Amino acid sequence: MFEKQDSAAKNGFGWRKDAGVSAASGEAANPANAFVSADHGSRTAMATTFMNHVMGWMAAGLALSGAVAWAVTTTPAALQWTAGMMLPLIIAELVLVIALSATLRKLSPTVAAGMFLAYSALNGATIGVILTMYTAASVANVFFVTAGTFTAMAFVGATTKRDLSKMGSFLMMGLIAIVIAMVVNLFIGSSALDFAVSALGALIFTGLTAWDMQRFKKMGYSGFATKREAGQMAINGALQLYLDFINLFLMLLRLMGDRR
User: What is the C-alpha separation between 164 and 95, in angstroms, rounded?
Assistant: First the structure.
């Protein structure tokens, strides 16, 4: 499905049947131009199929997280248990996402998908506890702002002709900086630093959404050696975009949410 050996490639390696004749004048056309046009079309279709799988898995992860978060917030016993197990659950999340990222190319797409969904469920449980600290109305407002921002930036990343790779390098450095700042703030408890981290974090994950969207679309356009590799990268793309969405939501919630 994602392999380079698609139907267009099988039919003359991307050549069109009318490649030797100009559609407008009936004169001999440049075969090289016909090849480029046909090959670009097949690769674009391949990238679209790949990104549909990426976004499908991402949506599944978000839906699962939302369902688990809702179950936790509406079930007193589950909320009490989860709140008491926050630290072990957070450690389990970190171990799982690091293991998935580190061993992805050794895993089958099915196992990788299972680990991604397990991570999404764990994340949903811990997010459920966080949501109880805010009013339902503000949580809903922040969710819609996050969804709109994410959609807009994903569209930019998928359609812009500008290379965002350099921006991605700066964003990753910024991400490291805010992680360090968050750790430091655990000890000093500065409200000003907390606000600065949340604002900067929201900007960083907004930018990362566009960058991740562009780089995974480029992967799909380039194609994959095997269907297994395509499946692995689809889960990887879903994980990265899922993290962009969730972290953007949490940063905006800290900035805009009304505490109970």
Answer: 30
Within a domain: residue 13?
A: no
Residue 19 phi/psi, 5-degree rounding, is -60, -25
Please identify which residue in the block is written with the tokens 């949506």.
59
Secondary structure class of 224 (helix, strand, coil): strand
Structural domain includes residue 8:
no
What amino acid occupies position 24?
A
Residue with tokens 């009936």: 26
Q: Which tokens go with 125?
A: 């449980």
One pLDDT digit (tens) per residue for the chain, 260 residues:
444 444 333 333 232 333 333 334 444 444 444 434 447 778 888 889 999 999 999 999 999 999 999 999 999 999 999 999 999 999 999 999 999 999 999 999 999 999 999 999 999 999 999 999 999 999 999 999 999 999 999 999 999 999 998 888 899 999 999 999 998 988 998 889 999 999 999 999 999 999 999 999 999 999 888 999 999 999 999 999 999 999 999 999 999 989 98
Instruction: Pinpoint the alpha helices (H) of the chain.
Output: 7-10, 31-74, 76-84, 86-103, 109-131, 136-159, 165-188, 191-222, 227-256
Quick check: is 40 in a domain?
yes
Residue 15 falls within a domain, yes or no? no
Type of residue at 91: I
Contact 14, 8 (CB under 8 A): yes
Q: Give 53: exposed, middle or buried? Use CB within 10 Å, 0-12, 13-18, 19+.
A: buried
Q: Which domain holds residue 116?
A: 30-256
Number of domains in the chain: 1
pTM for the full model? 0.83
